[in-house]
């Protein structure tokens, strides 16, 4: 198992680690700040810096079968040997944009309180799909409400609950397509104060004002009941 430093501090840009596995382009560390693809959020990119200053580019991060984080090196990069001490450093500007958008989508789910059938966090843009009865959604109204919540500067924080508590409160789970991971004894929740509380393992900003101004760019009908709402930084 890899110690997930980003889980306790999403603003951590680097951390020391030791290579525990190196096969081809795949490298695993005992500790990392790299978020692996999951929950609709892309994996981080960045680099592994060796003691002599040499840097190895990391193109992506994905989940390993054993619960670790696989740092997928860029094409042509040479993996450091097992036991090598490195500094794991993410592309912070990209990560911060993903954090802002991920939190924005949580706000969108508060503006539109319907079951979520899918979603994707992107770099500067994102989307949520909702199970909504036949209705016309007003793009401008949704955008205005979303920006109102952003500007209100609500605090965002993580906390944990026991599996049994989540089972007793199924209303916390908004996503119909992705179920929160259980079986480990506890589940991580993300709470936007006064607005939203749901299971989520992703990275988020501390205050909604960090998101900045956004716009609802498009609303698509994706079936009889499914509506796709797309947002982007304005």
Describe this protein's structure.
The model has no long low-confidence stretch (mean pLDDT 93). Strands 2-3-7-6-5-8 form a 6-stranded antiparallel barrel. It has a 4-stranded antiparallel beta sheet with strand order 9-10-15-14, covered by helices on one side. The chain is globular, with a radius of gyration of 19 Å. It is built from 4 helices and 15 strands. The protein folds into 2 domains: 12-90, Elongation Factor Tu (Ef-tu), domain 3 (Beta Barrel), CATH 2.40.30.130; 95-233, Threonyl-trna Synthetase, Chain A, domain 2 (Threonyl-tRNA Synthetase, Chain A, domain 2, 2-Layer Sandwich). The protein has helices spanning 5-8, 92-111, 139-151, 163-168; strands at residues 3-4, 14-23, 26-29, 31-32, 46-50, 55-63, 69-73, 85-90, 116-121, 125-131, 156-162, 186-192, 196-199, 214-221, 226-233. Strand 6 and strand 7 form a beta hairpin. It has 234 residues and is of the alpha+beta class.
Write the layout of secondary structure elements.
Blueprint: E1 3-4, H1 5-8, E2 14-23, E3 26-29, E4 31-32, E5 46-50, E6 55-63, E7 69-73, E8 85-90, H2 92-111, E9 116-121, E10 125-131, H3 139-151, E11 156-162, H4 163-168, E12 186-192, E13 196-199, E14 214-221, E15 226-233
Parallel strand pairs: 1-4
Antiparallel strand pairs: 2-3, 2-8, 3-7, 5-6, 5-8, 6-7, 9-10, 10-15, 11-12, 12-13, 14-15
